[in-house]
Structure formats: C-alpha cells, structure tokens
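User: Hi! I'm working on a homework problem where we have to compare a predicted structure to a textbook description. Could you give me the structure for the chain below?
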Amino acid sequence: MTLFFIVTLNGLTLAALYFLAASGFSLIFGLMRTVNMAHGALLLLGGYVGFSVVEATGSWGLGVMGGGLAAALAGAIVQFGVLGWMQGDELRQTLASIAISIILADLMLWHWGGITYQVALPDMLSGGQRLPLLGVGYASIRLALIGFALVVGIALWLLIQKTRFGAVIRAGVDDQDMLRALGFPISRIFIFVFALGGMLAGMAGVVTASALSIAPGTDLQFLLSSLVVVIVGGMGSVGGAALGALLAGLAEQYGLAYAPTYGAVFTFAIMVLVLAVRPQGLMGKAEK
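Assistant: Happy to help. Predicted structure tokens:
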C-alpha cells in the first residue's frame, strides 16, 4: 500500500506538471482554434530564462515571473507576427509553428548549450515533508507543485467563465464578425490570450526545471503530453485539461511502476479509447 500511495502521489505530481503545460495550450488551441506547435518551445524558453534569472538574482519567485514574462512576450510576437495572419488556416499554422519551434530550439541550443539544467529551490521548498498517514517523506517541491496547479486551474477557470473578458474571448471564437461590429479589438484580444498561454507555458517550464530538470528535448516531451491532455479532456475546457492531465499522469506512473515494459502504452491507449467513444474529449463540446 505504501508503494501504491507513493506512485499515486507521483502521478498527481506529473499530472500537475502536465496541466500547467497544457492549460496554455488548451487556451490557445481550444478557445482560439489556433494551432501552435511551438508551445513546447515556449515552455523550454521559460525554463531557461527562469534558470538564468534565479542564477543572477537568487530569487526563485523572480525566476518564475521572468520565465513566464519571457514566454508571454515570445508568444505575443508569434501571434502578432506570424500565426495571426493565418487565422482559420490550420495547415499553414501547423507548418509555420513547427518551423518556429525548430528555430527557437536551435537558438536555445546555441545560447544555453545541450546540457541539463535544474533551477535551485528556495529553502522553504527544498527538502521533504513527512506524510502523517503514510509515515514516509515526500519532496516539498512536489507537494507545492500540486497546490500551484490547483491555484492556476481555479484562476484560469474563473477568468474564462466568470469575467467579462472571458466572455469576450469565448464570443470571439464563435462570432468574430459580430464582436468587430460591436467595436471590440479582436486582434489585440487574441494577442493577449496568446501571451497568457505563453506565460502559463513559461511558468510551467520554470516549475519543471525546479521539480525535475530541463534539456533539449523537453519541449517535444511536453508538447506531446499537452496534445494528449487536450485530446482526452476536450478542447477549450479548463476542467477537461485537468481531467486529461490527471488521467495521463496517473496512467504513466502506474504503468511505469506495475508494467514498466508497457508503461508508455497506457497513456496513448486512453487517448485512443476516448477518441473512439467521445471524439470531442471527455468534457469537450461537440461541433454543431
């Protein structure tokens, strides 16, 4: 039972990472219907910048903010300069964002090299905590990561579902012409949403570099996981992203613990099953 609970906690930690990475992707891909295959590169950029900020200042909080702002700026530039001109043309967006991802990956490899980086943790997040029910220790950063993902998820849901700005975003996806007729600056709104998605990816990169590590290839890993999470949970749904991340994280950890030979298969088996039974995702809306 101790092993089971530890594996479950590891699954929840991984699910929190996947949710943080996929929440911005779900916001851009699900709500705006913009295919951004450079999302993983934004996450890696945020992790690298966050590492550099922490090394320069010694402040982990500034590192998270710096990584998020750097990815937000890069995301806004990508939307304004490239993808915004291809709205509605998914194939061109896919090809252009793949090219952007490759360029960003090469630039980051040139600047930071091909070594693995890990962000230094503050004293309050270093070490571990003894879990009272299990009598075993567990890393403080992993426990904090679960709480951080919960806070981000609740804040994002409130923004989209309970604010006027969220209503404008959702309306802009369904009927941009009507919003333009009402005087709303759709292009600027979409740039802001893209920047918000980039910021979430950048912050996820710093947290990933803190709890695990980052290196060339991390961008592809989290891009694939974000795709799986959004497909399983449903596009444009924060709750769906959370549910998809939970299923993916737990399936991966249970598979590695109890069937390591086939561990990587379980996550994709869930995705195939969901696509076969409910193509729009578990909490997604069917296209009208």
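For your comparison, note the following. The mean pLDDT is 85. The radius of gyration is 19 Å. Good luck with the assignment!
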